[in-house]
Design brief:
2 strands, 18 helices, disordered N terminus, 1% strand, mainly alpha, 74% helix, 459 residues, two-stranded antiparallel sheet, single chain
Length: 459
């Protein structure tokens, strides 16, 4: 009979975990950023090859965002029930298949389908990386989280140029860059584990959550454009699905959603903050390439113009995450949300290249800081269900990003770039308020705090 023991993340400081776990897990997570930032740079180029206008092409970004969220939630929950090794193997398979579909696609519908598969793989890889990093022993967690945040910001820094370089070769290549996560799988594989008994998965609950997320995205697309009867019908159906999700989460202890997390006040504030920050980020990432393309800049020019600001953002992220050891996490998140709000308002009034590069610096910094701090925060609050909690948080965060991009795209074509960016600035402004309401948790980045998780059985 197996006896309780610590999880691999918490137990093997010198053996299984090895050196630099934060960097290795960050390398697995990082390419997922390319699915948004790099693809956004290549969006104008794809418009010239696909028989669709830019208002419809926004699905390339928003479908990916929702796919990442659903994949992260499923991956996090499966990591709780089965272990991280099956999740990592599934992620690698989905990334490979999704990339192949995108590379051979000839229509927008097939491209979006491939991007959804790619996103599901990225989300599962993200869940494995986030839960493993945030679940490290208390003595190693601060250094690992800082390295993870720096690695994430580093990928964000290279994303515009990577997307530009890939699009210079082919716009299809720019859309499949998240598949690079597969390269980090061998380095992360020894740090994964498989639970001896596989707990049954609530697949009907998973289908309900996926349908609800898709409905929210459809609402954002239809309501931001020309709301009508279709918007009302989709809203009603999505509301019914949301009620079903809530009831199932409350009644089933072994449901797809971790019990108690969805109704917790700390989760609502954390999810709202992450969704608002990513909503502003996605809105800006949609706007900048189109603005610079209008001004006569090539795809490579866009990547080069955004590179310095993104590098600065990478450096600021590491310093900001370390500062969260001495300052309340909510205050740090409120500051970066307010910074992003100011950046969007500034970009709305001044659309010169250097001003847009400055705004991107604030966006990359805010997103990386929010992802790192909120993941660690969810770990200390959720306990044994940390995988499902982080996955659910990621789903809401990226869904907020998708809605931000959809709203910005709709306003772009009806009211113009200035109004679109101003409307997008409302989201991180709301995030500033929700971040200040976030309950403080002193265990997040301390060297003595412990993650209160139930022991995991190992074979």
């Amino acid at each position: 009979m197996s006896t309780p023991s610590r999880s691999p993340e918490e137990g093997s400081t010198a053996g299984t975990v090895g050196r630099g776990p934060g960097w290795r897990w960050g390398a697995l997570y990082g390419p997922a950023v390319y699915g948004v930032s790099a693809a956004a740079v290549a969006l104008p180029a794809s418009e010239r090859h696909l028989p669709s206008d830019s208002a419809v092409l926004i699905w390339i970004l928003t479908a990916y965002a929702v796919g990442v969220g659903v994949g992260a939630l499923a991956g996090g929950r499966l990591a709780d029930l089965w272990g991280s090794r099956p999740v990592l193997a599934t992620a690698a398979a989905l990334l490979t298949v999704g990339a192949l579909v995108c590379l051979i696609a000839s229509t927008l519908a097939v491209v979006v389908a491939g991007r959804v598969l790619l996103a599901a793989g990225s989300g599962a890889a993200m869940a494995a990386a986030l839960t493993a990093t945030a679940g490290l022993p208390a003595a190693r967690r601060p250094t690992a989280l800082a390295a993870f945040g720096a690695c994430l910001a580093g990928f964000s820094a290279t994303a515009p140029l990577a997307g530009a370089a890939a699009a210079h070769w082919s716009w299809r290549v720019a859309l499949v860059l998240p598949v690079l996560s597969v390269v980090a799988v061998p380095a992360c594989w020894p740090m994964t584990y498989r639970l001896p008994r596989r707990t049954p998965v609530d697949w009907p609950g998973a289908a309900l959550v996926t349908a609800c997320a898709a409905g929210l995205l459809l609402i954002a697309h239809t309501a931001a454009g020309q709301p009508g009867v279709a918007t009302i019908m989709i809203t009603a159906a999505t509301a019914a699905l949301a009620v079903g999700v809530a009831v199932r989460a409350r009644r089933r202890r072994d449901g797809f959603l971790p019990r108690g997390v969805l109704s917790a006040s700390w989760f609502r504030y954390a999810a709202a903050t992450g969704a608002c920050v990513y909503g502003g980020l996605f809105g800006l990432l949609y706007a900048i390439p189109h603005l610079l393309t209008r001004q006569g800049h090539s795809t490579m020019d866009i990547g080069l113009l955004l590179l310095p600001g993104a590098v600065v953002g990478a450096l600021l992220t590491r310093a900001t995450v370390r500062a969260a050891r001495r300052v309340r996490q909510g205050r740090v998140l409120a500051v970066v949300s307010l910074l992003l709000t100011a950046a969007l308002c500034y970009a709305a009034t001044d659309q010169r290249p250097w001003a847009l590069a400055t705004a991107s610096t604030a966006a990359f910094t805010a997103a990386a800081v929010a992802q790192t701090l909120l993941s660690g925060y969810a770990t200390t609050r959720a306990g044994a269900a940390r995988g499902g909690a982080i996955g659910l948080l990621t789903l809401v965060t990226f869904l907020g990003g998708a809605c931000g991009a959809a709203v910005c795209a709709a306003q772009w074509h009806t009211a113009g770039p200035a109004v679109a960016l101003t409307v997008a600035a409302v989201l991180p402004a709301v995030g500033t308020i929700t971040a200040l309401r976030l309950p403080h948790d002193s265990r997040l980045l301390t060297r003595t705090g412990a993650v209160h998780a139930a022991p995991i059985r190992r074979a």
